[in-house]
Design goal:
CATH topology: Rossmann fold
EC number: 6.3.3.2
Number of domains: 1
CATH superfamily: NagB/RpiA/CoA transferase-like
Distance between the termini: 31 Å
Mean pLDDT: 90
Protein name: 5-formyltetrahydrofolate cyclo-ligase
Radius of gyration: 16 Å
Low-confidence stretches: none
Strand content: 15-25%
Organism: Vibrio ezurae NBRC 102218
Binding site for substrate: 53, 58
Oligomer: single chain
Pfam families: 5-FTHF_cyc-lig
CATH class: Alpha Beta
Helix content: 10-25%
Number of strands: 13
Strand order of the largest sheet: 6-3-2-1-7-10-12-13
Shape: globular
Number of helices: 4
Amino acid sequence: MQQPSTRNEIRKHIRTLRIALTTPEQTLASLQLIEQFKQLPELTQAKNVALYLANDGEINPELAIKWCWENNINTYVPVLHPFAKGQLLFLQLTPTTELITNKYGIFEPKLSVNHIIPVADLDVIFTPLVAFDVHGHRLGMGGGYYDRTLAPFIDTHGPKAIGIAHDCQQLAKLPIEEWDVPLNKIVTPSKTWNWSLSS
């Protein structure tokens, strides 16, 4: 089958593949993902880590979140900024955090200024994605939220960005725009891709 060529065609194609995964397949993917996750050197000294709450067939990092809690790593998830359009805030997630749904139908913590962490204080940001290629390019849902979040830290010692995806979300090559922020590392159930070693 020929690969879809436009960004929107790719999004539609990969989301269809992702949503078609059965519950047992999703469960197995999560179990395999956590084994890859636990081997990441970025987590050895990490104190503050951002993950996400799965939606739309995304690989579920729930086991990774629980592992962080068990290892005394503060865990945060994205919240749509209420005033700055297209921006994310990161709020702490605990077992007792009250969750609400945002305008996209995605669960997020109820906004509280006491639980916000500045992005610069995060050690690692695990990003969801729709598709990725063998060069570390990431295709998101199209809102640009993570690209805006990560752009200020591309050439700094700020938080490390690591993508998380199903294996079926990998393509040979993505059409890239100038605002896209590539990732040095992407974790799938079967493999951890690391482009920083070859750059």
